[in-house]
Each structure stands twice: as C-alpha cells, then as structure tokens.
Design a protein that fits this description.
Elements: E1 8-13, H1 19-30, E2 33-36, H2 37-45, H3 49-56, H4 58-72, E3 78-81, H5 90-98, E4 100-106, H6 109-116, H7 130-145, E5 150-153, H8 159-175
Parallel strand pairs: 1-3, 1-4, 2-3, 4-5
Helix pairs in contact: 1-8, 2-4, 3-4, 6-7
Length: 179
C-alpha cells in the first residue's frame, strides 16, 4: 500500500495519543520507513528523555529536538513520530511541513492518563495532579496541534484502526491536490 509522492507522514499530538505505536503500524502498512524523534534524540545523546530533562533541562532538550527534526525532516517516504511538545516550536513545524503532511493524533484527558499511567517516564507529568496537568498542557498546546493538516481521534481505537484511517485520509489529501 505504498503511497505516492515522496512526502513524509508526520504524527504529532500529546503524549499518550499513540504516535509511536500508530506510526510503526502506518509505516508497516504503507511500506515506509519509521523514525521516532524522541528515540533519535536518546540515541544521539546516550541519555533517556527523563534523564535529559533532569540533567540538562527542558530548553536543552528542545534545542536537541529541533536539531533532530532538522535532520529527520529531510528524509522522504518516512513516517515521523514527534514528541508531544515538538509542534510548539514554529521552526519545527516549518521544517516538518517542508516535506511532510502533519497528522495530529488526539485523545481525551482520561484516555491519555490511562495510557501514560503514573509512569515516571513523563517529565512534564511530574505533578501532584497529573490529570489536571494533562488538561493544562492540552489547553496550552491546542492551537499548535490545530496547525496539523489532518486531525485523527484515537480514543477507543486500536493502533491498526487509527493507522488505516490515517492512510485513507492522507490518500484523500494527496488526491485532492493539496499535498
């Protein structure tokens, strides 16, 4: 089911919306490569994201994120899963849209909380009330997520169902001549 053209499919959205699992499935179904930006940052730095936040701070993480996105966005026929906050930086959005179609995955606060759990792997959720923190971050990032070309809800859907919906919507986008 290889898609036409050389554009990337870029998955954005809040943590826990399924970007990595869905991204791997989209790549497999479409015969495309897959790159997870956070995994690439960890590989380049030799540190986990939580360790990087702890030792170097969020600004340094965001700098490294943009550096990785600059390199990754030059790929073709690649499914790219971004970190949840990547699209807050206009430079990242510009880079990703140069050679990609941005698909934002969404989910309700309760769905996100259930998916990410009380895991210590989410530095931005180290809060007294993680559910409230998710709501605050979603509200703060909403306008950035809405810059996506396509929005897809993931609540109550399997990664394969979401991946198939993405591929259908991307094909329709391509056929419309927008892409």
């Amino acid at each position: 089911m290889r898609r036409g053209g050389d554009k990337n499919i870029v998955l954005s959205g809040f943590m826990g919306t399924g970007k990595t699992k869905v991204g791997r499935t989209v790549a497999r179904l479409a015969g495309m490569a897959f790159i997870d930006v956070d995994e690439e940052i960890e590989k380049r730095s030799g540190m986990s994201i939580p360790d990087m936040f702890e030792a170097l701070g969020e600004p340094e993480f965001r700098r490294r994120e943009t550096e990785a996105i600059r390199d990754i966005s030059a790929h073709q026929q690649t499914v790219i899963a971004t970190g949840g906050g990547a699209v807050v930086n206009p430079e990242n959005v510009f880079l990703l849209k140069q050679n990609g179609l941005i698909v934002c995955l969404t989910a309700a606060v309760k769905t996100i909380l259930k998916r990410v759990g009380a895991s210590g792997n989410r530095p931005l959720l180290k809060a007294e009330n993680p559910e409230q923190r998710i709501g605050e971050l979603l509200t703060a990032r909403q306008s950035f997520y809405e810059q996506a070309d396509i929005m897809v809800k993931t609540d109550g859907k399997s990664p394969r169902t979401v991946a198939e919906e993405i591929l259908e919507r991307v094909a329709a986008w391509d056929a419309s001549g927008k892409g």
